[in-house]
Amino acid sequence: MRLLLVEDDNHVAAALSAILARHGFDVTHARSGEEALQALVPEVDCFGVVLLDLGLPDQDGYEVCGKIRKRTSTPVIMVTARSDVRSRIHGLNLGADDYVVKPYDTGELLARIHAVSRRTAHEDTTGSTETVVRLGAVRIELPTRQVTVDGSVVQLTRKEFDLLALLAQRPGVVFRREQIISEVWRTSWEGTGRTLEVHVASLRAKLRMPALIETVRGVGYRLVAPTG
User: What SUPFAM superfamilies does the record tag this protein with (predicted)?
Assistant: First the structure.
């Protein structure tokens, strides 16, 4: 798999590139946001994953993430020193597929890279025969992957849509965390659990319906169909 590493520290990039190469990745190194955007020209874009460090010298990393998403659907994993949920949600809202927080374990990073690449290869994970799911003011169009609330389109990332579509298959039924991670992230790696929490928080905020997805403590989540 070809991987675009966006990192301004040459020493960090060299060490990480060596590790990734040992695990079969063909790494291209971009030292700035501008270099990254130039490497992602649509006609020649063939990267499997973009690993984006947010501490860039020329542009705000979040801004670069938004620009990347506008020109390609290649999965983006953010690398950030910020561990607060609000910062993570901001990155996910801009189109990032996942994140790792510094300092991170190499094994964790590799697991996340493989997880987003597997999910991209299996983008249609809902398994539903319906084409449209209606939940009160929420309308989920599975073929076009479009979600609207009261007729207004809500922009969701791929993972957010897959998560919502999965829960919407059986409103009221509790989905175990392990099941959600397996079906949406295509992995059983336990470290993905925190990512699940962030995606649930992001969905609640974007849909402006905090009560739509209920947390069942110690078990998982269920979608509560609106009444009336």
Answer: CheY-like
* Predicted local distance difference test score (pLDDT) of residue 65: 92
So what's the pLDDT on residue 43?
47
- Tell me the C-alpha distance between 148 and 207, whole Å: 9
Q: What is the pTM of this model?
A: 0.58
Distance CA 45, CA 93 (A): 23
Contact 145, 161 (CB under 8 A): yes
pLDDT tens-place string over residues 100-111: 888 888 888 888
CA dihedral for 121, 125, 127, 129, sign (positive or negative): negative
Q: What is the mean pLDDT of residues 141-161?
A: 90
Angle at 122 between CA 85 and CA 37, to 5 degrees: 60
pLDDT band at 64 (very low <50, low <70, confident <90, very high): very high
